[in-house]
UniProtKB/TrEMBL annotation:
One of its GO terms (molecular function) is citrate synthase activity. Coiled coil: none annotated. This is Citrate synthase. It comes from Ligilactobacillus agilis DSM 20509. It catalyses: oxaloacetate + acetyl-CoA + H2O = citrate + CoA + H(+). The active site is at H249, D300. SUPFAM superfamilies: Citrate synthase. GO terms for cellular component: cytosol. InterPro entries: Citrate_synth-like_lrg_a-sub, Citrate_synth-like_sm_a-sub, Citrate_synthase, Citrate_synthase_AS, Citrate_synthase_bac-typ, Citrate_synthase_sf. PANTHER family: CITRATE SYNTHASE, CITRATE SYNTHASE, PEROXISOMAL. It holds the Pfam family Citrate_synt. Pathway: Carbohydrate metabolism; tricarboxylic acid cycle. Keywords: Transferase. GO terms for biological process: carbohydrate metabolic process; tricarboxylic acid cycle.
Length: 368
């Protein structure tokens, strides 16, 4: 059998939530360019209900989400203990997500409460690791604004609010990517939401998936620190057989539509925060790789700079990605649970055949 590697191009199921067909990212029928200026709550509602909310529905939904952002005291106590451990923040989030399933009502918790709690947990991990006090949500702010406020300790102005909502919208879902498919596999076993989300977090941690944004900024820092010409750096990296992180995509051969939107946001935020040199470096690399290799930036490329401009250390980038993507994970978990069918693919065995076990091969008392 000529099997596609990594299930590339294999349709494993149907979904009403999102699509990447034809190199376009679509949420429930809306192209991502149409939704870039929507609020994060609108997109969460859309992913969960496959329709946009009415004005009254949106206000009630937003109020419900924000009201659930307060963590139980037991969750906070455990976070204060584990978040200071030296492990990578995604390892902390993996444990914290599982802990939410022990300090909350696993049987009766529903997606609005779970999403709100996940955002607060992630903001708390960031604050604890920065030795900053935890911040209570402001019930006058929306979900994304509250998350940014609880991350940074500053209530966002109109520019940052609009920018961060767009960042969260662009990362909210992406069809059957590795972490989403992992969540769906676990959901197909009828496991609880927290178990499904823990599996998704584990998959997102990998540098070939969510962890790529961290690697992008590490590359930018390395170029600036080495004082090498960026083109020379890229040539040397490619000659050594290494990847240039943040470029290329299995699906988007003509460019990631999210990256095109994020580039403009990164430019504006870099100008406002004195990070123009990083942005100029990114443009230099992107122009060179497009002209010489036909490679386009992907969603991780400009997101890395945006997160840096928000004052976040690079090892925290992927947990912010997880915060944005939780809405999509929950949408797919709900959809998978409705199907009621276990995901259990088959494989082609290519190992040895016809072997026989000799019963006297090992004798009692003999040395192995």
């Amino acid at each position: 059998m000529d099997l596609p590697k990594g299930l590339a191009g294999v349709v494993v199921d149907q979904t009403e939530i999102s699509s990447t067909a034809g190199g376009k990212l679509v949420y429930a029928g809306y192209e991502i360019e149409e939704l870039a200026q929507a609020s994060y709550e609108e997109i969460v509602f859309l992913l969960w209900h496959t329709r946009l909310p009415q004005k009254g529905e949106l206000a009630a939904f937003s109020k419900q989400l924000v009201s659930e952002m307060v963590l139980p005291a037991e969750s906070i106590r455990l976070l204060l203990y584990i978040a200071k451990e030296p492990q990578h923040p995604m390892s902390i989030l993996r444990t914290a997500t599982s802990l939410l399933g022990t300090t909350n009502d696993v049987i009766f918790d529903e997606p609005p409460k779970i999403l709100a709690k996940m955002l607060t947990v992630i903001a708390s991990i960031v604050r604890i690791r920065q030795d900053e006090p935890l911040i209570e949500p402001d019930f006058k702010l929306g979900l994304a604004d509250n998350f940014l406020y609880m991350l940074t300790g500053k209530k966002p102005d109109e520019f940052l609010s609009r920018l961060f909502n767009t960042v969260m919208v662009l990362h909210a879902d992406h069809e059957f990517n590795a972490s989403t498919f992992s969540a769906r596999v676990v959901a197909s076993t009828a496991a609880d939401y927290y178990s499904c989300l823990t599996a998704a977090v584990c998959a997102l941690k990998g540098p070939l998936h969510g962890g790529a944004n961290e690697q992008v900024f590490a590359m930018l820092e390395e170029i600036k620190g080495s004082h090498l010409d960026p083109i020379t750096y890229v040539k040397q990296r490619l000659a050594a057989g290494k990847k240039v992180m943040g470029f290329g995509h299995r699906i988007y051969k003509d460019g990631d539509p999210r990256a095109k939107i994020l580039q403009g946001l990164a430019r504006k935020l870099a100008q406002k925060t004195g990070n123009e040199s990083y942005y100029d470096l990114q443009v230099t690399l992107a122009d060179y790789l497009l002209k010489t290799k036909g490679l386009h930036p992907n969603v991780d490329y400009y997101t890395a700079l945006i997160y840096h401009c928000l004052g976040l250390e690079k090892d925290l980038f992927t947990v912010i990605f997880a915060a944005c993507r939780t809405a999509g994970w929950l949408a797919h978990i709900m959809e998978q649970k409705r199907t009621g069918r276990l995901i259990r693919p088959s494989s082609e065995y290519i190992g040895p055949k016809g072997r026989k076990y000799a019963k006297d091969h090992y004798q009692i008392g003999s040395e192995f």
